[in-house]
Amino acid sequence: MSQGVIENPAEHRFELALDGDDIAAAYYRIDENGNVALIHTEVPYAYGGRGIGTRLAIGTFDLIRASGRKAVLKCSFMAAFYARHPEYRDIVAG
């Protein structure tokens, strides 16, 4: 279940639509091994404390898993999420 998160390859990010034109986003690059290196996560300040980051992380990890790819955690938020959710260890490289 992607939690409403979609991948936007043109912008190199996973997105969660919020109100109006607002989005929460997990930015990535593809590394030399074809892994999805998660490099930065942004949730608009006005949405803080609502679990938006967690929904974004779950959706991002679920989409990466569904695509058969692996994630490399360069983003401190995503690394902290993973530390609390070891059920994603099958998709985390390194």
Descriptive terms for the model:
single chain, 94 residues, alpha+beta, Aminopeptidase, five-stranded mixed β-sheet, 2 helices, 5 strands, globular
Mean pLDDT value: 95
CATH class descriptor: Alpha Beta
Give the beta-strand count: 5
Named CATH topology: Aminopeptidase
Strand neighbour order, sheet with most strands: 1-2-3-4-5
Q: What gyration radius follows from the Cα positions, in whole Å?
A: 12 Å
Can you tell me the CATH architecture?
3-Layer(aba) Sandwich
Calculate the terminal CA-CA distance, rounded to whole Å.
Answer: 24 Å
**Series of secondary-structure elements, N-terminal to C-terminal:** EEEEHEH
The class by helix and strand makeup works out as alpha+beta
Please give the count of helices: 2
Instruction: List the domain count as a whole number.
Output: 1
The CATH H-level superfamily is: Gcn5-related N-acetyltransferase (GNAT)
Largest sheet: 5 strands, mixed
Taken as a percent bin, the fraction of beta residues is 25-35%
**Helix amount, in percent?**
25-40%
Mass-distribution shape: globular
Unreliable residue stretches: none
Oligomer class? single chain
